[in-house]
Amino acid sequence: MSDIESTPQAGVGGGRRWLALVFICLAQLMVVLDVTIVNIALPSAQADLDFSDGDRQWVVTAYTLAFGSLLLLGGRLADYTGRRRAFIIGTIGFAAASALGGAAGSFELLLAARALQGVFGALLAPAALSLLAVTFTETHERAKAFGIFGGIAAGGGAIGLLLGGWLTDAFDWRWCMYVNCVIAFLALCGTALLPNPRASHGVRLDLPGVLLVTTGLVAIVYGLSEAESEGWSSGMVLGPITLGVLLLAAFAVVEARTAEPLLRLRVVWDRTRGTAYLSAAIAMIGMLGTMFLLTFYIQIVKGYSPVKAGVSFLPMTLAVAVAAGGIASRLLPRVPPRALMTPGMLISACGLTWLTRLEPDSGYAEVPLVGMLLIGLGMGLVMAPAMNYATHGVGAEDAGVASGMVNTGQQIGGSIATALLNTLAANATTDYISDHMTRPGDQAVLQAGLVEGYTTAFAWAAGILAVGSLVIAALMNTPRPNPGAQAAGSGDPVPVHLG
Q1: pTM score
Q2: At the top level of its lineage, which domain of life is listed (predicted)?
Q3: Looking at the structure, do residues 324 and 435 belong to the same domain, yes or no?
Q4: 242 and 271 together in one domain
Q5: Is 326 helix (H, G, I), strand (E, B) or coil?
Q6: Has residue 491 been placed in a domain?
Q7: Band of the pLDDT at 53, cuts 50, 70, 90?
Q8: What gap in Å lies between CA 383 and CA 30, rounded to an integer?
Q9: 138 with 486: CB under 8 angstroms?
Q10: 98 within some domain
């Protein structure tokens, strides 16, 4: 299977591996926090660049469209060109795009910069995850490393809210972009420590597959992004989503018949890996949906400043870190992944259910804090094994694209969360206000209507996670790994060329 077989310490000392993990996680943090860091800065950017409320969503959508639709291509390019090289190119490109966005003097230039961030993020994210997979192959170390990495994947959005609020208040909205240059520089300082798995040279890129999957994912993410403003029955929503599904179906047919496919279908159809991708998507519905709606509640209803709103999410981030890095990393070598994923989703569902108790005058410690702690604990238990088993048993030639799949799952889940939960919240708010408004401009009714919308969305998200926990329990079939095995749940050793 390999040109050079690795051992757990093949040429890389234990201390160097853990130091390499720091730099890999820095790159992952940069990609993840950019999903949310701009959210808090948007009002300041809008006032500075003078763009409309209707255009505002595109600052977020431009990033998620490019990122989500190009992840599979980015993962395959990492396989073909070498993952360390892809990591370096992705990091430098992401930093350059961020600098362009920070210096933008017009809305169009900011939009182009956000799209470029997504393009290079789609190369960087799968390269980082696949590098992690070949850096840590011993069971216990692998579990701990993926616990830390999964914690960042789940909690990076909350860190983005905190960092975005502080940078916007203390400096300027442009620093929400410039900060990536600092993080990228730090990440690049450790590239000499990274393993250099041998690239898959002499393999042709599957251009029909690239075209079909990219346009299909763009259509789906675009359709979902339009649902909040256009409504689910609109042709602007149903048309792109239907087109995207058809294109992805055509992609599956083409891949099954292509000698050198972009995505070997066995990567997805494997129950363990496929369930890992599904769990990442479901987890993001709960995580991003919660952060997005709670941000509105905390700032609009409770009147928190951007910095105070960001600080209020810190407990969720800490809960994710404790669950992923402290609990999951210790249990993952000893128990099957569904023993963590299923209760993790149920715990998060309980947190979302608790948030349905929100009232306009609810105290922070009374409802939001408890809900965020439960959601964070649950997400940490889900994301650590999801990241670990995303590359379960794949050969080195497919590690990049397998890593891209789990990131694609997160992006689709996040898009569904934003579209579905915001639409549910908006409809519930509109119905409540129309039923209860007796005099125009009644602020008490307006605030109660907003809270009614948020709690309705939280109830739906809780139901989705509860159903998701049952699906994961039924589908995830990985047996309990042997603590003495070389890699948690993996098959053959991953071929690595260390240089």
Answers
A1: 0.77
A2: Bacteria
A3: yes
A4: no
A5: helix
A6: no
A7: low
A8: 17
A9: yes
A10: yes
Using the structure block, give the residue that is written with the tokens 């951007």. Answer: 306
Split at pLDDT 50, 70, 90, the class of 224 is confident
Burial of 52 (0-12, 13-18, 19+ CB in 10 A): exposed
CA 57/CA 222 separation, integer angstroms:
11
- 303 with 217, same domain? no
Residue 388 located in a structural domain = yes
- What does DSSP assign to residue 193? G
Q: How many domains does the chain have?
A: 2
Helical spans, DSSP H, in 270-398: 271-296, 306-312, 314-321, 329-331, 338-355, 368-389
Query: Would you say 36 and 176 are in contact if contact means Cβ atoms under 8 Å apart?
Result: no
CA angle 157/160/166 to nearest 5° reads 150
Residue 483's contacts (CB-CB under 8 Å, 6 or more residues apart) are: 139, 140, 333, 334
| 115 inside domain | yes
Nearest 5 degrees, angle CA 301-CA 225-CA 445? 25
Q: Which structure tokens are listed for 268?
A: 């997805």
Residues of the domain holding 343:
14-195+262-475
- Do 374 and 465 fall into the same domain? yes
Q: What is the pLDDT of residues 70-114, one digit of tens each?
A: 887 888 888 777 888 889 999 999 999 999 999 999 999 999 999
pLDDT per residue as tens digits for the range 429-488: 888 898 887 777 778 888 999 999 999 999 999 999 999 999 998 888 765 444 444 443
Integer Cα distance of 274 and 62 in angstroms: 27
State both tokens at 458: 């939280």
CA distance 410 to 96: 24
Q: How far is 207 from 209, CA to CA, in rounded Å?
A: 5
Alpha-carbon gap, residue 130 to 151, rounded angstroms: 17
The CA distance from 67 to 31, in Å, is 9
> What CATH number should be reported for the domain holding residue 423?
1.20.1250.20
For residue 411, give the amino acid letter.
Q
Which amino acid would we find at residue 17? R
Q: Do 458 and 356 touch, CB atoms closer than 8 A?
A: yes
Neighbours of 479 (CB within 10 A): 8
The DSSP 8-state label assigned to residue 69 in this structure reads: H
User: What's the token pair of residue 18?
Assistant: 């853990």
Assign 490 a pLDDT band (cuts: 50, 70, 90): very low
Q: Are 445 and 436 in contact (CB under 8 A)?
A: yes
Same domain, 151 and 268: yes
Is the same domain home to 277 and 340?
yes
Do the Cβ atoms of 68 and 224 come closer than 8 Å?
no
Tokens of 155: 């909690």
Tell me, what's the pLDDT at 489?
Answer: 38
Question: What is the number of residues in the chain?
Answer: 499
* Alpha-carbon gap, residue 494 to 395, rounded angstroms: 6
Amino acid letter for position 413: G
What is the H or E stretch that residue 424 is in?
A: helix 422-436
